[in-house]
Amino acid sequence: MKVTSDFKALPAHSKPTNPVKPFEDIAEGMEANFTSHMLAEMRKAIPKENQDSSAMEYYNSLLDYERAQLMAKSDSGLGVKKVILDQIVPANMKHYLKKVPATEPSQVVTTVSMKENTHE
């Protein structure tokens, strides 16, 4: 066995791994599925004069799926991902989650009450 000081042959572990990444992927997928289903059901609620062709229905389903994927990946989606992560991530790993600053309820009430007091 030849011992060398060549570190290029060693696997690169320079990036710290995120142990909650699998949980985030699961939660994101669940939010995407929920959002896709919700968009499809909302589309059914729209009254139409003529029924869509099968090609149009397929196109709309793809469109709903892609929109749902984008919404799930964003931090400002429906919030289902955050709720799921709060439930499935073990307590000792919660510090690895991305912290999104929440709006304080007092700020929301102040903003609303100021709008209510203005008579425009």
Structure overview:
- With 120 residues, the chain is mostly helical.
- The protein has a domain at 19-96.
- It is built from four helices and no strands.
- The protein has helices at 21-44, 54-73, 80-88, 105-117.
- The chain is elongated and about 70 Å long.
Secondary-structure map:
Blueprint: H1 21-44, H2 54-73, H3 80-88, H4 105-117
Helix pairs in contact: 1-2, 1-3
Structure in a nutshell:
Helices cover 55% and strands 0% of the residues. The protein is mainly α.
- What pattern of helices and strands is seen along the backbone? HHHH
Largest sheet: none
Rg is 23 Å
The SS-based structural class is mainly alpha
Low-confidence stretches: 100-120
Keywords, separated by commas or semicolons:
120 residues, mainly alpha, disordered C terminus
